[in-house]
């Protein structure tokens, strides 16, 4: 096994013939410019879900430091986070390109619930201006070191950019203001699942996502954030749902959480709604090598996507 960056590059090479668009091929090629990352030590207040870098920890009082846990985050966690390889975004980028987003350089992209910085970095390497928004309090601290955000050198004549926003979008006015607008693409992968937002059966509350607004308000916020002609893409990978006599799995219901009528009444043109993408997803997963991690790809992996245009 090589380093995490080396493994991402191997995946990217394996996927190059799978993707169809030049945008997705360039995205995968950007893996070759991902820099190595040294381990980062953070101090954690588990009770209050707070994280501190070394400089922030040094500024705390002895009383505030008491009971904090020290933890090191390596290159694998930096790029893969809790959710896996950034190369799996290639299919969503292919779909956006098929719908008209053919050049990522200079594009303004919002990743709702980004979860990890790898895919943002790869997009920025291509010259995209990328914003990630998430509620995980770890992310702005882990990705708050020099070089993580701001200008990112890459393949284009001008650098891309990464901006990270922590907060509930669009439930918090300050988060909406920080996210801003003028986006060419708003993408959400494995976050806006019907099972998370509107579970079909009783579910563990810890597994659910509370948007803090109703469906129409969320759709209107995304619509307002997009440029004319901009796209909203929801792409979800899911394992098989549990049988009726077993506890419901919210993450296994990957259909769109918003009714088609809600999206259309907002003003969106719905290009694809809950389109089954399982065949492509299984091919992608096989090329990445998820079967080597124990996944039964042919029986336990499904995919749906919804794509709308302003």
Describe what this molecule looks like in 3D.
With 310 residues, this protein is α/β, with parallel strands linked by helices. The protein has a single domain, classed as Rossmann fold (3-Layer(aba) Sandwich), CATH 3.40.50.150. Helices cover 32% and strands 23% of the residues. It has 14 helices and eleven strands. The chain has helices at residues 4-15, 22-29, 54-58, 62-65, 75-80, 90-98, 118-125, 139-142, 173-179, 194-197, 215-225, 260-266, 278-288, 297-300, and strands at residues 40-45, 50-52, 69-73, 108-112, 129-134, 150-152, 160-166, 183-189, 226-238, 269-276, 302-309. The strands form two sheets. It has an eight-stranded mixed beta sheet with strand order 6-7-5-4-8-9-11-10, with helices on both faces. β6 and β7 form a beta hairpin. α2 (22-29) runs antiparallel to α6 and α11 (215-225) crosses α12. The protein is globular and about 55 Å long. The model has no long low-confidence stretch (mean pLDDT 96).
Q: Give a short account of the largest sheet.
A: 8 strands, mixed
Distance between the termini: 44 Å
Identify the strand order in the major beta sheet.
Answer: 6-7-5-4-8-9-11-10
Strand content: 15-25%
Number of helices, counting only DSSP H or I runs of 4 residues or more: 14
Question: How is the CATH topology named?
Answer: Rossmann fold
| Poorly predicted residue ranges | none
From the alpha-carbon coordinates, what is the Rg to the nearest angstrom? 19 Å
Average pLDDT for all residues: 96
Number of discrete domains: 1
* Helix coverage percent: 25-40%
CATH superfamily: Vaccinia Virus protein VP39
Determine and state the CATH class. Answer: Alpha Beta
């Amino acid at each position: 096994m090589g380093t995490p960056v080396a493994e991402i590059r191997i995946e990217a090479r394996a996927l190059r013939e799978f993707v169809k668009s030049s945008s997705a091929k360039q995205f995968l090629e950007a893996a070759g410019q991902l820099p190595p990352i040294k381990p980062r030590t953070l101090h954690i207040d588990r009770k209050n879900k707070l994280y501190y870098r070394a400089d922030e920890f040094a500024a705390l009082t002895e009383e505030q430091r008491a009971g904090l846990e020290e933890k090191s985050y390596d290159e694998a966690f930096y790029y893969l986070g809790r959710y896996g390889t950034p190369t799996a975004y290639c299919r969503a980028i292919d779909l956006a390109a098929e719908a008209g987003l053919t050049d990522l350089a200079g594009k303004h992209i919002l990743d709702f619930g980004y979860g990890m910085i790898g895919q943002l970095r790869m997009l920025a390497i291509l010259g995209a201006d990328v914003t990630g928004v998430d509620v995980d309090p770890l992310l702005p601290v882990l990705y708050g070191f020099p070089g993580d955000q701001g200008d990112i050198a890459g393949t284009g004549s001008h650098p891309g950019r990464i901006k990270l926003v922590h907060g509930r979008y669009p439930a918090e006015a300050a988060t909406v203001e920080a996210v801003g607008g003028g986006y060419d693409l708003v993408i959400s992968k494995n976050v806006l699942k019907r099972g998370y937002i509107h579970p079909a059966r009783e579910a563990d509350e810890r597994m659910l996502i509370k948007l803090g607004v109703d469906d129409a308000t969320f759709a209107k916020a995304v619509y307002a954030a997009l440029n004319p002609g901009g796209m909203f893409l929801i792409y979800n990978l899911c394992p098989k749902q549990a049988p009726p006599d077993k506890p419901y799995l919210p993450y296994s219901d990957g259909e769109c959480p918003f009714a088609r009528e809600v999206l259309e009444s907002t003003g969106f043109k719905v290009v694809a709604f809950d389109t089954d993408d399982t065949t492509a997803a299984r091919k992608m997963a096989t090329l990445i090598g998820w079967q080597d991690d124990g996944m039964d790809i042919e029986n336990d992996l499904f995919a749906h996507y919804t794509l709308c245009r302003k």
